[in-house]
């Protein structure tokens, strides 16, 4: 395929911060890759470079953040030659690709949800997408519908299910004045806690617990963007342990 114009749109939701959403490449060095990196959306595009190195076509654009939140996000990529409109959740970013070429020359298949191993350095360190996609449209082709009706030739569908399982986790929102108090286990000598959290505040208390029999306490907090654990033990000479990350 050698195209001057491209329109690619889809919706996705995921809990993973890394993953290839779609990828295509050609024998002449052209490629297009849309992926999640550190929960941000990254579009890598190359309409061609020359062997002399005087024309360098690689272009990379990043948009969005915290996209691994189990919510649906909508993407539209509109390309006319070197002019690109990248829209994420109605926020549009316009840019021009590097280089001097206008056509995207893809010789191989386009893959959604991952990329095949091509032997190139770009292909082996990238994770496949984990989550749900819907309304995948590539240059007027309804990919989701064609895949479901098995009308894509050639195609390697892999282990797909045409349903989206909702996560079983239940989030709790705190408004900076609220807190959740749960009963402890005074008969056990093991303290164990695990949780996922997301915040825009650089400082705040995450967990606090007193030990039984006035033996001390444990405190987990965020201080200027760093997570710290403070353990106070009343019966020891070195009675305070501080760990931060």
Write a compact overview of the structure shown.
The chain has one helix at 143-148, and strands at residues 2-3, 5-13, 19-25, 31-37, 40-46, 59-63, 73-80, 83-88, 91-96, 104-105, 111-112, 132-138, 141-142, 204-210, 216-223, 226-233, 240-244. By secondary structure, the chain is mostly beta strands.
Task: Describe the protein's architecture and organization.
Pfam families: Laminin_G_2 (PF02210). Residues 1-164 form the Laminin G domain. InterPro entries: ConA-like_dom_sf (IPR013320), Laminin_G (IPR001791), Neurexin-related_CASP (IPR050372). This is CNTP2 protein. It comes from Steatornis caripensis (Oilbird). The protein is mainly beta and 245 residues long. The chain folds into 2 domains: 2-156, Jelly Rolls (Sandwich); 169-244, no CATH class. It is 2% helix and 40% strand. The chain has 1 helix and 17 strands. It has one helix spanning 143-148; strands at 2-3, 5-13, 19-25, 31-37, 40-46, 59-63, 73-80, 83-88, 91-96, 104-105, 111-112, 132-138, 141-142, 204-210, 216-223, 226-233, 240-244. The strands form 4 sheets. It has a 6-stranded antiparallel β-sheet. A 5-stranded antiparallel β-sheet has the order 6-5-4-3-11, with no helix packed on it.
């Amino acid at each position: 395929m050698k195209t001057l114009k491209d329109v690619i749109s889809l919706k996705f939701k995921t809990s993973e911060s890394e993953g290839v959403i779609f990828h295509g490449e050609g024998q002449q060095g052209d490629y297009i890759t849309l992926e999640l990196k550190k929960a941000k959306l990254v579009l890598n595009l190359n309409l061609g470079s020359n062997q002399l190195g005087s024309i360098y076509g690689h272009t990379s654009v990043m948009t969005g953040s915290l996209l691994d939140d189990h919510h649906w996000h909508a993407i539209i990529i509109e390309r006319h030659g070197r002019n690109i409109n990248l829209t994420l959740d109605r926020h549009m970013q316009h840019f021009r690709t590097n280089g001097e070429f206008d056509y995207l020359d893809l010789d191989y298949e386009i893959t959604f949800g991952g990329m095949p191993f091509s032997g190139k350095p770009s292909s082996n360190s990238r994770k496949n997408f984990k989550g749900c996609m819907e309304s995948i449209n590539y240059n007027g082709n309804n990919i989701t519908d064609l895949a479901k009706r098995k009308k894509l030739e050639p195609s390697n569908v892999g282990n797909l299910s045409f349903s989206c399982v909702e996560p079983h986790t239940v989030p709790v929102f705190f408004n900076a004045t609220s807190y959740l108090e749960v009963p402890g286990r005074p008969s056990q000598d093991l303290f164990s806690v695990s949780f996922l959290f997301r915040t825009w505040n650089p400082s705040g208390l995450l967990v606090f617990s007193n030990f039984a029999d006035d033996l001390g306490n444990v405190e987990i907090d965020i201080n200027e963007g760093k997570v710290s654990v403070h353990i106070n033990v009343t019966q020891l000479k070195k009675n305070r342990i501080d760990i931060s990350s």
